[in-house]
């Protein structure tokens, strides 16, 4: 059915919903216009706010546009030639490239899409242009009980968290010993850590049994399902990108559509887009270049219709703690959603997106969240995917039964809003670092997330492999796009924030071990640090950002969040106390290291028994890169959490060859240099105190060598190394060739040698 056939007459669609927008002293005759313009090839968009008295009557429909250029709105490419696209109905589009690139249409304003938004002084009525879209009938919306906060659970969780934090701090301050083992002792935090790990392993095993039972039960039920796949990327390595796309084509459950979004429309970005079209040529997948970011359209519409918050600070704090939004939020959010939906439906009318099995979009470069927002919007409002949306990254290889297994778990309970699965490392054999990361991934998913799944509160649905229920994604998509921190738009932690949005609605999140994907891990230490910095920032930002979610879910969610938040600080305090503090036992630091290594080895043995993978024994050495890399990075992430610059994850060969300046490298790893100085100076102090010789303070010089390792590869260091190499080579040649004549004769004697530069031949004799 065509989208145009769904547009009903005005008298049957207009809902007469009263929405209030309290604009600051907006004149009744003034029209404020917010423009989002692309380059000369792109469309121009306007969000108009006009008083009801001066607003022209607009007929009901999704979007208004001029009809004078309707047959030339879209073109497809054959080489460098752009031809007008013939009108099509439900047949498959044979065009491979679409964009609005008609100067006559631009001049006449046919490509200007206007979203009528009425907003004036306080008390004015704002109406939304309705569209033929009812989410309750389009999406599979299960019947759920009304969401009610349990006061007892809420009070218990808050008191439990505060008591736990207070007990840990007090126990550490007074050096409380729960178990005294003679040569060492176990404090309150160590005891809690042992209890937590024992519970994690037990719950992880229980989750495996539960998921297997649910899978066998759901396998007997036959139902028609619709799942779309959303995959986004930015300048990905072409081979990794192609392997990812091929894995998506081999799913046992055929997806309704595969939506690829390339975050960029410059020449280097088109290689990804062309690769998508090439891999899905059997489905006649087109490449559509979008003129603007849908996320920007959504945000600008929202903030232009949001009244000024004049409440007191106490009222704002109350709204934050209770999870309520500021006045005017619901109205502005509805307008923003309608504006994006209208635009998506207009694109569907032009390009027949709903009839496609695979499609690739390129858009102006933003960041991952903007690309995900585009993919989600197309999946929900153009394709109208009924059951769920599966998300993955551009460097991920997905198992063949991924859609089947994850949809099975999603349908096992109406209260489940999203699910995730196991993530492995496909390049784990490249280096020791990737091997250690692969071991860490196993523990993170098969122990930690599996335990959380037992309590139905997985804290983060992983980006490489997640599935969201369509009706719930439609609910959280707008607030997710509007997230800010310190007045800035957030540009990382997209997956964790999506998960928190589900948890804040009282929905459950689960994990399945029955399927998996393989993603890429950084192969260099500096790149790994950049990745961990982004992840740590998102963790601290989201840790206590959603107080309502703790009221809806098990205390285990709050317990794990509290322990993971406090762990870096307790560990740092313990390390410096061991190095610089006084103790009756001089060997106390060494005993502490042995105990920590022993605990890690016990965890590895347990993992070996579960997975039968001997490589997991390497996890006992993961503590070294945690200590010298991840621990100080967590502290640095907390300090720079308000810095929202996206540490680009581009992995193309061109991007990897791009060198960082010393300043850029300092921002990424400068905190490690400070950490190394503090640690090795403390280590030298400890050894000198143990041996009674101050000469061991020179151990601190090791920090200088490690700092050189961190900066090796930056642009200035590489250039400096080249200059030093040239100077050494020049000195060596001069010593071997005292005169230019000797050098010339030497090179002439062996004609097989390459003639050196003139500078190496000595100065020519005068006369």
What does this structure look like?
- By secondary structure, the protein is an alpha/beta fold.
- It has a domain at 3-133.
- The strands form 6 sheets. Strands 6-13-14-12-11-15-18-17-21-16 form a 10-stranded mixed sheet, with helices on both faces.
- The longest helix has 32 residues, at 188-219.
- The protein is globular, with a radius of gyration of 30 Å.
- Residues 49-69 are annotated as: Disordered.
- InterPro entries: Nucleotide-diphossugar_trans (IPR029044).
- It holds the Pfam family Glyco_tranf_2_3.
- This is Glycosyltransferase family 2 protein.
In short:
This protein is α/β, with parallel strands linked by helices.
List the helices and strands and how they pair.
Elements: H1 3-6, H2 10-13, E1 19-20, E2 32-37, E3 44-49, E4 75-78, E5 81-84, E6 97-98, H3 103-108, E7 113-117, E8 125-126, H4 135-138, H5 151-173, E9 179-180, E10 185-186, H6 188-219, E11 227-233, H7 238-249, E12 258-263, H8 270-279, E13 287-289, H9 294-304, H10 313-322, H11 329-351, E14 358-363, H12 368-382, E15 388-393, E16 397-398, H13 402-410, E17 416-425, H14 432-454, E18 466-469, H15 470-481, E19 484-485, E20 488-489, H16 494-504, E21 508-519, H17 525-543, H18 547-552, H19 555-580, H20 588-611, H21 622-639, H22 653-657, H23 662-691, H24 702-711, H25 715-736, H26 740-749
Biased composition (Low complexity): 50-69
Pfam families: Glyco_tranf_2_3 (PF13641)
GO molecular function, one term: hyaluronan synthase activity
Identify the notable features of this structure and list them briefly.
alpha/beta, hyaluronan synthase activity, disordered C terminus, three-stranded mixed β-sheet, ten-stranded mixed β-sheet, Glycosyltransferase family 2 protein, membrane, cell membrane, 767 residues
């Amino acid at each position: 059915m065509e989208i145009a056939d769904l547009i009903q007459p005005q008298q049957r669609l207009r809902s007469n919903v009263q929405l209030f927008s309290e604009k600051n002293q907006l004149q009744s005759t003034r029209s404020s216009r917010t423009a989002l313009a692309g380059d000369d090839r792109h469309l121009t968009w306007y969000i108009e706010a006009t008083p009801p008295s001066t607003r022209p009557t607009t007929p009901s429909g999704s979007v208004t546009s001029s009809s004078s250029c309707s047959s030339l709105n879209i073109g497809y490419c054959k080489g460098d030639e752009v031809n007008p696209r013939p009108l099509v109905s439900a047949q498959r589009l044979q065009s491979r490239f679409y964009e609005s690139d008609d100067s006559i249409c631009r001049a006449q304003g046919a490509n200007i899409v206007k979203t009528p938004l009425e907003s004036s002084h306080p008390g004015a009525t704002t109406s939304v242009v309705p569209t033929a879209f009812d989410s309750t009938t389009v999406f599979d919306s299960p019947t759920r009980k009304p969401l009610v906060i349990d006061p007892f659970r809420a009070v218990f969780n808050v008191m439990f968290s505060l008591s736990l934090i207070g007990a840990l701090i007090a126990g550490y301050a007074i050096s409380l010993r729960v178990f005294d083992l003679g040569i060492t002792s176990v404090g309150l935090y160590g005891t809690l850590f042992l209890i937590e790990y024992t519970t994690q392993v037990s719950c992880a095993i229980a989750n495996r049994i539960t998921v297997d039972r649910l899978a066998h039960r759901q396998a007997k039920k036959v139902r028609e399902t619709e799942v779309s796949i959303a995959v986004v990327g930015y300048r990905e390595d072409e081979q990794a990108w192609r392997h990812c796309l091929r894995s998506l084509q081999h799913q046992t459950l055929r997806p309704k559509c595969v939506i690829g979004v390339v975050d960029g429309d410059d020449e280097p970005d088109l290689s990804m887009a062309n690769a998508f079209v090439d891999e899905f040529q059997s489905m006649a997948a087109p490449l559509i270049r979008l003129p603007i970011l849908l996320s920007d359209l959504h945000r600008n519409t929202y903030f232009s219709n949001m009244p000024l918050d004049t409440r007191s600070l106490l009222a704002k704090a109350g709204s934050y703690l209770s999870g309520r939004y500021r006045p005017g939020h619901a109205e502005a959010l509805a307008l923003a959603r309608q504006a994006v939906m209208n635009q998506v439906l207009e694109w569907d009318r032009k390009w027949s997106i709903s009839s496609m099995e695979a499609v690739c979009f390129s858009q102006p470069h933003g960041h991952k969240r903007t690309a995900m927002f585009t993919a989600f919007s197309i999946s929900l409002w153009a394709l109208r995917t009924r059951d769920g949306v599966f998300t993955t990254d551009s460097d991920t290889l997905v198992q063949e039964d991924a859609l089947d297994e994850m949809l099975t778990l999603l349908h096992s309970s109406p209260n489940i809003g999203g699910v995730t699965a196991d993530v492995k490392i496909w390049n784990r054999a490249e280096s020791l670092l990737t091997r250690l990361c692969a071991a860490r991934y196993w523990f993170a998913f098969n122990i930690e997330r599996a335990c959380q799944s037992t309590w139905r509160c997985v804290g983060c649905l992983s980006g490489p492999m997640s599935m969201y229920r369509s009706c719930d994604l439609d609910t959280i998509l707008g607030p997710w796009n509007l997230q800010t921190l310190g007045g800035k738009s957030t540009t990382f932690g997209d997956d964790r924030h999506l998960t928190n949005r589900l948890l804040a609605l009282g929905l459950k999140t689960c994990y399945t071990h029955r399927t998996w994907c393989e993603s890429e891990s950084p192969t260099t230490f500096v790149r790994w640090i950049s990745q961990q910095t982004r992840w740590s920032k998102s963790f601290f930002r989201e840790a206590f950002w959603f107080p309502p979610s703790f009221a809806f879910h098990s205390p285990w969610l709050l317990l794990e969040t509290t322990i993971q938040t406090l762990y870096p600080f307790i560990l740092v305090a313990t390390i410096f106390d061991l190095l610089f503090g006084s103790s009756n036992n001089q060997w106390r630091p060494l005993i502490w290291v042995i105990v920590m290594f022993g605990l890690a080895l016990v965890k590895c043995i347990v993992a070996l028994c579960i997975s039968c993978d001997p490589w997991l024994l390497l996890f006992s050495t993961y503590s070294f890169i945690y200590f010298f890399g991840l621990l100080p990075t967590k502290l640095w992430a907390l300090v720079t959490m308000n810095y929202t610059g996206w540490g680009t994850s581009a992995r193309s060969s061109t991007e990897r060859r791009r060198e960082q300046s010393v300043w850029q490298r300092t921002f990424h790893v400068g905190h490690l240099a400070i950490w190394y100085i503090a640690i090795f100076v403390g280590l030298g102090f400890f050894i000198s105190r143990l041996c009674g010789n101050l000469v061991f303070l020179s151990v601190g010089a090791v920090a200088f060598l490690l700092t050189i390792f961190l900066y090796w590869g930056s642009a200035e260091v590489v250039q400096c190394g080249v200059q030093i190499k040239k100077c050494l080579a020049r000195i060596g040649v001069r010593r071997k060739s005292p005169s230019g004549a000797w050098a010339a004769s030497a090179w002439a004697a062996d004609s097989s040698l390459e003639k050196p530069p003139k500078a190496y031949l000595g100065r020519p004799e005068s006369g």
